[in-house]
Amino acid sequence: MSKKIWSYIILIFGLLLSCELLSAQIQENLPFIDTSGESDLTVSYSLNIKSLQKEGYAETYNGGLKTLFISKGRVRNRLVSLMRMQSVFYFRETGNRERTIAIVKESGKDKYKTYLSLKEWQQYNRKYDSSTCILSNDSILILGYQCKKATIILSEEQKIVVFYTELIRNSMFEIAEPAFAGIPGLVLQYTYENERAVLTYTAVSISDLAIAPAVFQIPAMGYPVRKFVQTNSR
Amino acid sequence: MSNNNYDIFKRLKNYSVTPPPKIWEALQDEFFGKPGDAYLKIKSRELQNFEQKPPEILFEQIKVNYQRENIQAQQRVTGNERTSGRIIFLFRKYAVAAAIFIFILAVPFLLKKYSPQKQKGPDTVKVKSADKLLENQPKLNEKKTQAELTANKSHQTAPGKLSFHKQTDNWLAVSYVQINGDNLIVYENDLLYTFAKLKPKTVPSFFRSSDGKEIQISINEFTNISVSSYMQTIISELYKTGRKGKPTWKARRVKGRIEKWRKNDVKLFDKKMNANPLDIIDMGDSLFNY
Questions:
Q1: pLDDT digits over A165-183, tens only?
Q2: Half-sphere exposure of A39 (CA within 13 A, CB side)
Q3: Shortest CB distance from A10 goes to which of B101, B122, B169?
Q4: Among A188, B118, B261, B287, which is least packed, fewest CB within 10 Å?
Q5: Going from the N-terminus, what domains does chain A have, and what CATH number goes with each?
């Protein structure tokens, strides 16, 4: 083979090697990678609501923050906004199966907590049972993670566009967010659009630091238990 | 001169003369005698023994030709030297390719060497800041969890003059918030209620200014929320007072609107429990269709 061909081969090899090294470098700079689902996980999402009509009520949620805590079979999904603070707890191992899920309204004078069984929780989120998930190769970068696009379709009008990373996986995700049951990884951005507004949650921080067990403690005093009753009409 | 030669050759090239008839037979007779004799001479190999001494001038001509060819050969060598420039150019090309290759290989290592110190997400930074606050505290455990650090920081930064609500068993309960560096006591974990409850005299300056700067509310180590410009306007209108220091008609109207939103919120998410505020579809459909 001529020198020219050899030089091309070496150049291509070098390029491939450098690409590999660069991708390794990028991955090394990520906050963390966990595909086993064993690490503690804290992800915070900021909420952005865009609407042509400035509905004051919706603005009380605009700029809010949702934080997902996952640790050793326990989940706390907490929304904090001007109008409301509310958490949903999930415990994989609990003595009382009727209390696998707890919804706790933390703000206002009328604080309360409601316990649900896993079956009731599934019933509560039944609208996602018939949803379909279409994975796509489009991608964006969020917090250093290359996130792939997916579309969750409930109906012609109801679609959620999500961007997820495959580098963080946890079996708890589908419990915390039943909408994302078909997503193979952690969702770092998701958008829902209806005829009047566009709502987008975007991850603003992610951490694998240990979470104190107290974070998963359901408040007792000042939070009366309310029975879970779901009516058919809104 | 050269042009003339060229013209002569051109003319000679196109020059043609028709030979006289039977010239061939005449020539054959001249050189080989009668037909049939030439054939016999070749056959008997008489030509093999034929010798004739070349004229002296021929040697001189050969010598001149040799010298001329020698000069031409030297000229060719000079031309080759010129082509060696091409070789040098090719060599430079390889050198450039090698330099690019080395550069490509070096980039990741350089990036690694000179990139900022690895940060394990924003929370790591926050924990470090919390560590600084805890420097003067007795060290109980080397490894503290996120929430423990949060709780410690809350106690450290809380100014003594603020009277906190009794710490409930809700670990993430909000006793106070920091807005643009100022502390503000929160009632019932309810930010909007707290803002609506403030008396005009005690309203922090950030709600009075109309510079359009975004207000960030820091609730704890991992919770910061922002107040939209629309809500900033609404909240600032809450505190407008008339001459006698009483809330204006507009302020009372805004308060009424907030109360209406609160009732709607309870109706949507608490009474029927058909909608989950943490669910994006429920939220999107409820907020705009109540």
A1: 999 999 899 888 999 998 9
A2: 16
A3: B101
A4: B118
A5: 41-216 (2.50.20)
